[in-house]
Amino acid sequence: MGQVAADRRCEALGRAQLMEAAGALMTERGGIDVSIHDIARRSGMSSALIKYHFGHKDGLLLALLEKIVGNSITRLQALVQRDLPPREKLRLHILGVLNIYYRYPYLNRLMHYLLSSSEDAQRSISRSIIQPMIAAQTQILDEGLRAGVFRKINPMSFYFHVIGASDHLFYGLYAMRFAFGIEEIGEELKESYGEDLVETLLNGISAR
User: What contacts 67, CB < 8 A, 6 or more positions away?
Assistant: First the structure.
């Protein structure tokens, strides 16, 4: 039994090491154009282990995405249960989503790539990320509706407002470069954008 547990720990460490290597490479390169051999070389492991642990490169990338956003989903579900006003819950949630995109600059490209790669990836992302996020958001929106602070709003619309605004800040860097002369997104810009986004969304759904 002890050997089985040790093997499982070793396997988990191997998976984590490969995902960490892939994430580091994508951060450095500013995109998701990394090969199995690149990842293996960065991790110090054999490329055959990528196929062993994940089946293929896309399996590794999907596992990485689910790990990153899965941690955020866990925090969101805990936020739903906190004794806070609904408006404050949504403020923290919106800023949290923006911070995830900021912390992992390759996240938007990775999400778009995987959602267009296969139906299996679409189903997996929907089941593990999109559906739990919409469920948590809906719970907070319903709480605010009952408290009289939010108007009734379609949860799908709210989800796309939050994700779309967070995603496009980083995906649309080319527009900021040529239209606004901004070469990179720093902490100050991210925080300023986040506060504007919070005010726009929350004032937009406030009860009239």
Answer: 19
CA torsion, ordered 28, 32, 34, 40, to nearest 10 deg: 80
> 184 pLDDT exceeds 70?
yes
Contacts of range 181-189, beta carbons closer than 8 Å, 24 or more positions apart: 185/102
In the predicted model, is pLDDT for residue 182 greater than 60?
A: yes
- Please give the structure tokens belonging to residue 55: 């089946």
Residue 147 scores a pLDDT above 80: yes
Q: Residue 154: phi, psi to the nearest 5?
A: -65, 120
Q: What is the pLDDT of residue 43?
A: 92
pLDDT tens-digit profile of 156-167? 999 999 999 998
- Asked if 110 and 61 touch (Cβ cutoff 8 Å), the reply is yes
User: What gap in Å lies between CA 29 and CA 115, rounded to an integer?
Assistant: 21
Q: Please state, rounded to an integer, the average pLDDT across all residues of the chain.
A: 90
